[in-house]
Specification:
single chain; alpha/beta; 10-stranded mixed β-sheet; 14 helices
């Protein structure tokens, strides 16, 4: 997702609780017995921040039942949603309508409906564009999901400022499907939960709606543990930690680092799941905290998506996540920040190129061995069309993607 290089100092939120024998979630959403469900907060953010159902009246929770507040807030939200909807109309036309035929032609019908998106900060939207039939999507990045509760307490002036900041912070996402490190960092300080709001915006764009929302952590085996109110309260007073060394700490508790959103297609009943995991994907941290890989390994073969990832998968110190990806991918779509050809060939993969590529977008990655290998990969294949940008462009601002799959 990033347009600028990032480091990998991140925060894990793990626990040493007992391991479930079957590897399933210890606290299941099916029975709803444990773990706080923030469904009403999700629906409020879906309407106000993500502009889902913007033709409907605002919920009483946001207007406080005060006619003067109602008038002010209504104008603020209408102005916000007018701008958001204008961008979404263009985005849908480009990706969900014009681009649909390309994805239908390129993505195999046999690709797993379980999708894993490393380095996918805030970007549920791209996963829904590429894989609209996915039943489970996992995004992983340095950014934490965010506290959804504050929207109920904001004054009209605070809400106006937060929505304005949110539009800036998600602007790249709904224009070209990518965002900058600065915007992703700023989301961590907004009174509105930037990551959650971005995910809900993805649902709006794709024609989905949220049904349930819970926060979680992992036990040592990588099993999901949904947080109850006592567990959330226990970490409220703890020091807040940034997930990147040169970012300011987030304005919310680490209890809100990882989120699970159940959602469904408008008019349908079948439930799907999106999980966002705030995690450090660098080798040093992954070695000390292997819970994420243990969790991902339980999914078996998956469909993978990576784009705008600052070329981190080219580096030697991201070998563990790269190895997981190569060991478990059934099919993968990426820009040039995905798996470099040398690693793909060694793992018995083939790669097919689309669009044009003449060199890395970021100067620091240009003319490296992996950059040269990608240039040669594109030169050695027939030119296949790519009618839109999806992730980074190359150094000449050309759109490109590559498919990686087993031979």
């Amino acid at each position: 997702m990033r347009l600028l290089a990032v480091s990998f100092a991140a925060l894990a939120f793990t626990t040493g609780t007992a391991v479930a024998q079957d590897g399933a979630s210890r606290r299941t959403l099916a029975n709803g017995a444990d773990g706080v469900d923030f469904a009403e907060d999700a629906k409020l953010l879906y309407r106000v921040a993500a502009c889902g159902g913007s033709d409907q009246p605002l919920p009483a929770e946001i207007t406080k039942g005060d006619p003067k507040v109602t008038e002010k807030v209504t104008k603020i939200v209408e102005r916000h949603c007018k701008k958001i909807n204008e961008q979404l109309v263009k985005f849908r036309a480009q990706y969900f309508e014009k681009g649909r035929a390309w994805f239908d032609d390129v993505v195999p019908k046999t690709a797993p409906t379980t999708v894993v998106y490393p380095f996918g900060g805030g970007d549920l939207l791209s996963a829904l564009v590429a894989f609209p039939n996915a039943t489970e999507i996992t995004t992983i990045s340095l950014e934490q999901a965010g506290d959804p509760r504050r929207i109920r307490t904001l004054t009209p002036a605070q809400l106006d400022a937060s929505l304005g900041a949110l539009r800036v912070e998600i602007g790249g996402l709904i224009s070209v499907g990518s965002n900058t490190s600065e915007n992703l960092s700023a989301q961590q300080r907004n009174d509105l939960p930037g990551q959650v709001s971005s995910f809900l915006l993805g649902l709006v764009a794709g024609g989905f709606e949220p049904v349930a929302m819970r926060y979680f952590r992992f036990d040592d085996a990588g099993t999901i543990d949904y947080l109850d109110q006592a567990e959330i309260d226990a970490v409220e007073s703890e020091k807040k930690h940034s997930l990147k060394h040169d970012w300011q700490p987030p304005s919310f508790s680490r209890a809100f680092a990882n989120v699970e959103i159940q959602y469904k297609k408008l008019g349908e009943t079948a439930l799907r799941v999106h999980r966002h995991i705030g995690w450090n994907l660098g080798d040093d941290y992954m070695t000390k905290n292997p819970q994420l890989v243990r969790h991902l390994e339980k999914k078996g073969k998956v469909t993978l998506l990576t784009k705008g990832a600052s070329y981190l998968l080219w580096r030697g110190d991201f070998s563990l996540i790269r190895t997981y990806m190569l060991d478990h991918l059934a099919w993968m779509l990426s820009d040039s920040t995905g798996i470099p050809p040398a690693y793909a060939r060694t793992a018995g993969m083939v790669q097919e190129t689309y669009g044009y590529y003449a060199g890395a977008f970021l100067e620091g990655s240009q003319e490296s061995r992996h950059d040269q290998a990608f240039i040669e990969l594109w030169r050695g294949q027939k030119r296949r069309k790519l009618p839109f940008r999806f992730g980074y462009v190359d150094k000449d601002k050309q759109a490109h993607v590559v498919v990686t799959r087993p031979k």
